[in-house]
Amino acid sequence: MSNVTLAEALATARRRLAEAGIGEPAQDARLLISGLLALSSTAFVTDGRRSLADDEVMAIDAAVARRIEREPVHRILGHRAFSRLDLVLSPDTLEPRPDTEVLVDMLVPHAQRILTERGNCRILDLGTGTGAICLALLDLVPGATGVGADLSAGALETAMRNAQLNGVADRFEAVESDWFAAVTGVFDIIVSNPPYIVRSVVGTLDEDVRLYDPILALDGGDDGLDAYRAIAAGAGDRLRDNGLVAYEIGFDQKDQVTAIMRENGFARTDAVKDFGGNDRALLFSKAMAV
Fold this sequence. Notes:
Order of helices and strands: HHHHHEEHEHEHEEHHHEHEE
Number of domains: 2
Shape: elongated
CATH superfamily of the largest domain: Vaccinia Virus protein VP39
Largest sheet: 7 strands, mixed
Radius of gyration: 21 Å
Strand content: 15-25%
Helix content: 40-55%
CATH architecture of the largest domain: 3-Layer(aba) Sandwich
Oligomer: single chain
Distance between the termini: 66 Å
Structural class: alpha/beta
Number of strands: 9
Number of helices: 12
């Protein structure tokens, strides 16, 4: 047993992160330590005087050193919460952000309605990464089935592992595909959080993102819209009648993505803002908007 208490370890971690210029050192220190030691939210108050084991101190020191190198907290821990799920992360996957949950929440009532009306609801998640969007929908809409497509084999391995860990693997299929290229069948809902960062901007992103999120999941081409064009061009042939297409978008892409979809025969039926008040999720239908 070391001579370091939980409270002292927290204070030291917070100080080291602050000295390294980390933006929210107190929050990151608490997240790292509570995640590493599987502590409750109240443990720092109730157990602050507890002496830590030597291996616990070493694990905290190593994690803080990684955070100082700008590795995100949840990548250090290896997983993060999304919707009602706990998702494993890997170098091949984008780290799911809470703002993406608004896309899931927007789709849930539509998926439930389709399931009730048709007896099934088939979902295609393009660029699935960790599987976050599709798996969250399968979790929230029991009876729905999903296909996660991704160009990265490593991402698909992560998505399948997450499906198994979260109890929806029997309703989820992973397909290695360049957008629709290897996808078969038709779907009620096509959803994607595609790469949408303008290529010239990728190199200016925060180190937390630029150094640790895969470029494949960030680079949206010269104007950030390449993926939306590819999906819009192929979606019509992969949708059932009155099928829906839903996207996550960049904060300034609402009008541009809407125009791309309109050119391909889709009408926008919903637009949702994220927790910061920015445009974040769009919904389109082959039918005319009401």
